[in-house]
Each structure stands twice: as C-alpha cells, then as structure tokens.
C-alpha cells in the first residue's frame, strides 16, 4: 500500500487511573500508532488489556480520575488536550464517529430509530425542514443497510443485528473521517459479524482517500476479514504492529503473545495461553507477558521497546524483509 | 440419556418460538446445537436444563420423564445439571465474592462441609487465583467472571452440562481455556454436554457432533422471522 497521510496519529499515549488509597492503574502505556486514510487498523487483545480505555481517551470520554499523557492528533487537533466544548462541538460525530460495543445500551429505548436518526441528522448536518430530515434519515438508514420499513420501531423491537446497524447508521451520519468501532460484533452470530464488519469496511472504501477505521475487537476472525494492519495490545501496551496479511498468514505474528492468541482459535491449535493477564494496577517491571511466555529468560526482566514491528526480546523470525518493513 | 421429544416451547400463548423439536444427548456425548441469534436454540437449552417449562412434548432424563420444571423440579434432577450462560454479568449475583458465588450451589443444597476445599480445587481448575476469589463481580473482567460461573456449574459434579453461548463474549484464549476445562471435566466424569452456539468452527472442534437448528425444526422460517 502506498503511504498516505495519517488521519489519526497517536504518539506516546498513556492513561493512568488514580484509585482511592493512592493506587495507580496503568490502563494504557506509551501507545504509538497511526491510522492512515483508506485504512482499517484492528486493535486486538484479551478483555481487560486496555483497548476500550484507549478508545474512550480518543473521544474524551474518560472518567474524572484519569490522567493522560502523549498526544493523539486528528488532523491538527490534539484529542487529549482539547476542551470539552471543542470535543462536543467539532469532534464527536463530526470528526470521529463511534460504533458502540452494545447497541442495545447505546440507543435510546423510549424513541424510535427514525426519531433518533432525524435528531442526529439535524444536529450534525445543515439539513432543515421536516420532509428533508425525513428523507435524510432514510438515506442514512440505507447507508448502513438498515431496512427503512423498520425505522418506526423502538430498539427493543429490533434483533441484535438490526440494532447494530441502527447504531452504525447513527455513527455514519456525520461523515466523520475517523470511525471508531469498539467491539462492534460482540455477541453477534458469524453471519452478522461478517455483515457488520463488511459494512464498516465499505464505508471506509466508499470514502475514497479521506476515511479511516480503528476497530477495537477481540474477535480475530472479524479482524482478519477487514483489517489492513493489526495492533496487538497486552497489559496496556502495544506489543506488535503488523501488516494484517503477514500477521494472519505467513510468516505469522512475531510476538509470542500474538502467536498464542492465534493458536487459541478453534480452527488452529485451540490451545489457550497458560495463566491470566496481569493486573493493570500491579504490572511487573519487565515484559508483562514473561510469566506466561515459553520463550522467557533473564532478558525479559527488562522492558522490551517496540522496535520495528514487535516489542519482544525473543520474537519469532520474520521470514522476509518485507514483513520487517510492514 | 437426555431425551427431548417433540418439544414445543415459547413465552406467549399460541405463539411458540418453535414446535415439535426433538434432540437426544447420550451419556458422555457432546452435542453442539448451531443456529443464528434469535432462532430459539437457547429456549431449547433452557427446556433441557429444566429452566423453562415447555408447552408440550416430553423430556426424559436418564429414563425418567420430567414432570416439573424450575424450582418445582425434584432436587435430584435439578442438581444433575450444570448450566453456563452467555453473559456472566447477568448470571452472577453482584453482591457475592467469587468464592461465595462458586460455593452457592453447595450451600443451597446443604453441602457446606468441605466446600472451602471444593472451591479451592475448582478455582485451580478454571485458573482463578486466590486474589481474584476474594473479589466481587464488578472487580473482575468478563473472562474471569465466566471462569467463576463455569466453576459454579461444576461444583455439584453434574451429569449433564448445558453451555449456552458460553464463550460468545470471550477472547480466543479464554475460550480455548474454558472449553478445555469442560472437556477435562467430561473426560474425568463422563458427563454429557449440550453446547449451544453460533460458531460452527468452534462447535465442530469442541463436540462429537454438531446439529443444525434448521435440521431440527425442518424449516428455516423461524430463523428468518427472527431477523
């Protein structure tokens, strides 16, 4: 792929939660990555590794006890230092659309999908007038493949798949250059997963040069289906950043953790990674994965930096130079 | 033998979710039940686990017809089942520490003696540390809570396990870990399994045979209507 301008550029992003009693939880530590125009980056990892906190940080939705460091540039705007007014008026919905984890909880239960779409259209676009709003809302529904004859239903009258599409339609209304999808496929069956992620991918492709997708997921099959690049997160750090084709195909992932994740899939070895992820409040000094790693030795007492594509002292070999450059 | 014969079940009168569904699970057998969301497969699993009374049809459990469901079912039949649901948050009492959550079935059936040892043994099996056992559900991740829910399902040493989308919320590694725990338990005890899910790859890998929901109902209409 040719180098394109990054839509989102995250540099040294860290998030700390200050807990009662002076405890600090390191939810995200020193994350560096870019999402380029026309690209889908999948951020994968086990639950509780800090993926969703990262998404919340990008939208300014962290709770009050969070401290952030680093920068996250969306165009010229640093999302981490922007004030609430800027975030509310120019970022959410307009520059960054959120496809939420649980559409059932995201949609307003007491209003129809049509009413919620029209409200969003009125808030985010210059469309005015009842008839114009109505047709704009229907167009928005169609873009997310939401059936127009279901628009007058309330969220509880929709199946999980349709609720997901309604939430996606809302996220697409503002035509934002960056789409943030936080576990968009949790609890959906395989057909719906495929359809949901295909729609997200289509949205990126339809936007030509301008749009990018950051998909946060623990569903490796969904990531494989649409991602151009993969970022693997473990214990709050990005431990591998690789080209999706190389990651899921040959030569495969280089970090032992990524490799373990793939080997846990039922169509591969179906063997779990031994042990549990560490507590983010009590991370070890060295490599956080070392206690679960079969390659660990004394060198792992020192934190490995993300050099090239992988943060590990004993990565699996990259067979080609191309994989190194990815 | 877990034998469901011509079961019709639903939640409103005259509008059953499915009609005339039959399914048999032999002792020690692992059967996967595959279907899209909303097709009624979870309802069938609930009938099989004595959690939902069907409108018609018979359930024969180890040669004995089941006449009562839910709390009315005789204890010997109720405790023959261990059930794991899709969403651990909705199936865990938020007030209980994980250790009490796992021990709850022992207390409910008056088997407090030796419960501490049994909980410790199961915690090791499912991979929960002592630190985690002292926490309440809001202090642990979905994967950790589901590990506790699986331990709770195994604590009475059931002859039958019903896993309704047990791994749908979980990442690949936790999924593989929990399936291994279930399979180790079945290898040791010869328990039968009904695993409900929508992931064919997973069920094919996990179970002795996978049954397609449409093959049970003979029609795809129910699945289509749910979309």
| Order of strands in the sheet with most strands of chain B | 6-7-8-3-9
User: CATH homologous superfamily of the domain at 1-80 and 160-166 and 190-227 in chain B - what is it?
Assistant: P-loop containing nucleotide triphosphate hydrolases
What is the helix tally of chain B?
10
Helix-strand pattern of chain A: EEEHEEHEHHHHEHEHEEHHH
**Radius of gyration of chain A using CA atoms only:** 20 Å
- What proportion strand of chain B? 15-25%
Per CATH, the class of the domain at 6-37 and 44-83 and 219-226 and 236-325 in chain A reads: Alpha Beta
Distance between the termini of chain A: 10 Å
Task: Describe the 3D structure.
The complex is a heterodimer of chains A (about 325) and B (about 230). Chain A has helices at about 50-60, 85-90, 105, 115-125, 130-145, 160-170, 190-205, 220-225, 245-250, 255-265, 320-325, and strands at about 5-20, 25-35, 40-45, 65-75, 75-80, 95-100, 180, 210-215, 230-235, 235-245. By secondary structure, chain A is of the alpha/beta class. In chain A, α5 (about 130-145) packs across α6 and α6 runs parallel beside α7 (about 190-205). The longest helix of chain A has 17 residues, at about 190-205. Residues about 320-325 of chain A have low confidence and may be disordered. Chain B is an alpha/beta fold and about 230 residues long. Chain B has a domain at about 1-80 and about 160-165 and about 190-225: Rossmann fold, CATH 3.40.50. Chain B has ten helices and nine strands. Chain B has helices spanning about 40-50, 75-80, 100-110, 115-125, 130-135, 140-155, 170-190, 200-205, 215, 220-225; strands at about 1-10, 20-25, 30-35, 55-60, 65, 80-85, 160-165, 190-195, 210. In chain B, α3 (about 100-110) packs across α4, α4 (about 115-125) packs across α6 (about 140-155) and α6 runs parallel beside α7. Chains A and B meet through α6, α7 and α10 of A and α6, α7 and α8 of B.
């Amino acid at each position: 792929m040719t180098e394109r301008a990054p839509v989102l550029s995250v540099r040294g992003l860290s998030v700390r939660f200050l807990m009662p009693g002076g405890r600090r939880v390191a939810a995200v530590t020193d994350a560096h990555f870019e999402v380029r125009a026309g690209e889908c980056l999948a951020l994968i990892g086990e639950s509780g590794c800090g993926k969703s906190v990262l998404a919340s940080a990008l939208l300014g939705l962290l709770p009050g006890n969070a401290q952030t460091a680093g920068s996250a540039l969306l165009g010229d705007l640093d999302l981490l230092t922007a004030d609430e007014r800027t975030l509310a008026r120019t970022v959410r919905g307009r520059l960054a659309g959120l496809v939420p984890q649980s559409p059932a909880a995201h949609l307003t239960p007491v209003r129809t999908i049509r009413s919620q779409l029209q409200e969003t259209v009125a808030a985010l676009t210059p469309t005015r007038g009842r008839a114009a709003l109505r047709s704009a809302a229907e167009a928005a529904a169609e873009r997310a493949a939401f059936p127009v004859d279901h628009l007058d239903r309330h969220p509880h009258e929709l199946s999980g798949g349709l609720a997901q599409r309604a939430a996606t339609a809302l996220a697409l209304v503002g035509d934002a250059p960056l789409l943030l999808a936080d576990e968009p496929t949790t609890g959906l069956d395989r057909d719906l997963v495929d359809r949901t992620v295909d729609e997200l991918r289509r949205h990126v492709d339809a936007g030509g040069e301008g749009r990018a997708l950051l998909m946060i997921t623990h569903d490796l099959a969904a990531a494989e289906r649409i991602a151009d690049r993969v970022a693997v997160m473990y214990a709050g750090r990005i431990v591998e950043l690789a080209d999706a084709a190389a990651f899921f195909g040959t030569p495969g992932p280089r970090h032992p953790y990524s490799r373990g994740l793939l080997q846990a899939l039922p169509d591969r070895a179906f063997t779990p990674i031994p042990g549990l992820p560490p507590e983010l409040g009590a991370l070890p000094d060295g490599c956080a994965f070392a206690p679960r790693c079969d390659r660990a030795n004394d060198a792992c007492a020192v934190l490995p930096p993300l050099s090239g594509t992988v943060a590990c002292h004993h990565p699996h070999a990259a067979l080609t130079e191309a994989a190194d450059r990815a | 033998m877990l034998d469901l014969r011509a079961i019709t079940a639903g939640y409103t009168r005259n509008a059953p979710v499915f009609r005339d569904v039959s399914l048999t699970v032999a002792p020690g057998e692992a059967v996967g039940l595959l279907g899209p969301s909303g097709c009624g497969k979870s309802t069938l699993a609930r009938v099989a686990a004595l959690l939902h009374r069907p409108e018609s049809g018979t359930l024969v459990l180890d040669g004995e017809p089941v006449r009562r469901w839910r709390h009315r079912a005789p204890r010997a039949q109720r405790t023959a089942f261990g059930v794991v649901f899709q969403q651990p948050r909705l199936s865990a009492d938020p007030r209980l520490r994980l250790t009490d959550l796992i021990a709850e079935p022992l207390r409910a059936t008056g088997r407090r003696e030796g419960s501490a040892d049994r909980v410790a043994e199961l915690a090791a099996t499912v991979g929960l540390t002592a630190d985690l056992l002292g926490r309440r559900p809001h202090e642990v991740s979905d994967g950790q809570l589901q590990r506790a829910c699986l331990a709770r399902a195994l604590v009475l040493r059931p002859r039958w396990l019903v896993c309704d989308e047990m791994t749908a919320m979980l990442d690949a590694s936790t999924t593989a870990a929990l399936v291994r725990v279930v399979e180790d338990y079945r290898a040791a005890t010869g328990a039968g399994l009904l695993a409900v899910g929508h992931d064919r790859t997973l069920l094919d890998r996990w179970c002795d045979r996978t049954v397609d929901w449409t093959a049970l109902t003979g029609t795809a209409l129910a699945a289509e209507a749910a979309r």
